[in-house]
From TrEMBL:
This is Tetratricopeptide repeat protein 29. It is found in: Cytoplasm. Pfam families: TPR_12. Axonemal protein which is implicated in axonemal and/or peri-axonemal structure assembly and regulates flagellum assembly and beating and therefore sperm motility. SMART domains: TPR. Keywords: Cytoplasm, Repeat, TPR repeat. The keyword Transport does not apply. One of its GO terms (biological process) is cilium movement. GO terms for cellular component: cytoplasm; sperm flagellum. PANTHER family: TETRATRICOPEPTIDE REPEAT PROTEIN 29. The gene is TTC29.
């Protein structure tokens, strides 16, 4: 279970539509136009006299085989080997996943002519650039292939070509390291996507160091250095969350301080606020409550500057948790009531449930069961509005706990008295079980409770006790 709030893991940026990077028709397009047995027979009937042996073979061969033959004829042996290896890798992945898996139901790579066309064009273009030592052009062709395979089912291909881009970028010496920096960024995103956070952090740190002092910008106008700071803030926060789960509090705090510094360097107030909040939670987990309060107050002030009511509510809730651990319950209740007012004001229903549940638990622990029931009921009503069944069930349990405690106060008072009237009351309640929270001994609307006949004389009139 995550200790820090969830940090969204970013996938690699949106790439251009594959239509924009489609390769032009290959020189041997004529052999690709005729597909299917009927089309072949019709063509042969019309052109049988002028059909060479090579042309006949082209029409009879599979699309993949024609692609491979063309690569070899043009001398692109490396591209042929790479294409063949990728097809074999896809088949191995499919076999390893087994029948019924998602990849098992997909078409194989060799059965998708459009993808084969993309691979043929860009692989041969990259190989030609490599022969001429135009490594930047080679990098761009490999990057275009990564862009082509950005769909979820093709991620393994995209990741493969990002790795190729990373290797090629090391050979480019004329751009001051920009391509290498971009390659580190892409590899970091791939590792982050696969949950390899330490490896991702290494790539992001390399990306950051290559962009320090540079004015390089991406297509949105942001500097690459700012982007590197954002990546590092995110990955440090994810790493710290893992450390907190493993009770490595001091290491987590050091990592979160680095995340906070990256957020400040990026000049992003939202990120800075989140970093301060996570630091506050980490100090609280480590038992350093005074420092936790300082960081949470910093988060509160930043949230107020940003006009983030949700953030303000989270700050009040976190401060209340810290104060409860310090035994300052009355002050914690003050913060929680502020949290509750904000949740109602801006209709943050989830926060409303949290605030009411927290307040209910505090009053329940202090023995004020009627007040606890009131807040638990509010939490239950708010959960019903959300139509969140697990949350509804959870708040229902809290309501049951509060009502049971409230009822037990009255039951225990009669049990503790151990007198004749108390026993009669308990027996009457056991028979009726009416309105346990308000008054477990009230029956009907007449204001009287009919007590059971406990005398040995069957003819004696049943006593009636008036309830004022």
């Amino acid at each position: 279970m995550s200790i820090l709030p969830p940090v969204q893991i970013q996938c690699p940026k949106e790439h251009p539509d594959t239509e924009e990077v489609r390769c032009p028709s290959p020189a041997f397009a004529r052999m690709h136009l005729i597909k299917g047995k009927d089309a072949i027979d019709r063509y042969l009937a019309m052109h049988i006299k002028g059909l060479s042996k090579q042309e006949a073979a082209a029409y009879r061969n599979s699309y993949k085989k024609n692609i491979c033959i063309d690569m070899l004829r043009q001398g692109y042996h490396k591209s042929f080997a790479e294409l063949f290896t990728l097809i074999e890798k896809w088949n191995a992945l499919r076999e390893a996943s087994g029948p019924g898996s998602a990849i098992w139901l997909q078409k194989s790579l060799e059965e998708q002519p459009e993808k084969l066309d993309q691979l043929h064009f860009f692989l041969t273009s990259a190989e030609a650039a490599q022969r001429s030592e135009y490594y930047e052009e080679m990098y761009l062709n490999q990057l275009s292939l990564a862009y082509c395979f950005n769909k979820s089912e093709d991620r393994w291909l995209r990741n493969y070509f990002y790795e190729q881009c990373y290797k090629t970028a090391q050979l480019i010496k004329i751009d001051g390291g920009r391509k290498e920096a971009e390659a580190h960024s892409n590899m970091g995103l791939v590792c982050e996507e696969q949950g390899q956070f330490l490896k991702a952090a290494e790539h992001y740190e390399a990306f950051y160091h290559l962009t320090v002092g540079r004015i390089w910008k991406d297509e949105t106008g942001r500097t690459l250095n700012t982007l590197a700071c954002e990546h590092l803030w995110r990955i440090y926060t994810l790493l710290a969350d893992k450390m907190l789960q493993n009770k490595e509090h001091q290491q987590a705090i050091k990592t979160l301080i680095k995340a906070f510094e990256m957020a400040k360097e990026a000049d992003n107030k939202n990120m800075e606020a989140e970093a301060a909040f996570c630091l506050g939670l980490a100090y609280h987990s480590a038992g350093e409550e005074d420092t936790a309060i300082l960081k949470l107050n910093a988060f509160l002030e930043l949230s107020k500057i940003l006009g983030d009511y949700g953030g303000i509510g989270r700050a009040y809730e976190a401060l209340a948790q810290v104060l409860v651990s310090l035994g300052e319950v009355d002050e914690a209740i003050t913060y929680l009531e502020k949290f509750l007012n904000i949740a109602r004001k801006v209709q943050l229903t989830h926060n409303l449930v949290d605030a009411c549940t927290f307040l209910g638990n505090i009053y329940n622990e202090r023995g004020n069961y009627s007040k606890a029931c009131e807040y638990f009921d509010q939490a239950f009503c708010a959960a019903n509005v959300l139509a969140d069944l697990p949350l509804v069930n959870e708040t229902k349990v809290y309501c049951g706990i509060g009502k049971a405690h409230n009822m037990m106060v009255k039951v225990n008072s009669h049990t503790g008295a151990a007198d004749h009237v108390g026993i009669i009351y308990l027996l009457a309640w056991k028979e009726n079980r009416n309105d346990m929270c308000t008054d477990p001994f009230t029956v009907g609307q007449s204001g009287t409770v009919a007590l059971p006949d406990i005398s040995t004389d069957a003819k004696e009139e049943e006593p009636v006790i008036q309830i004022s």
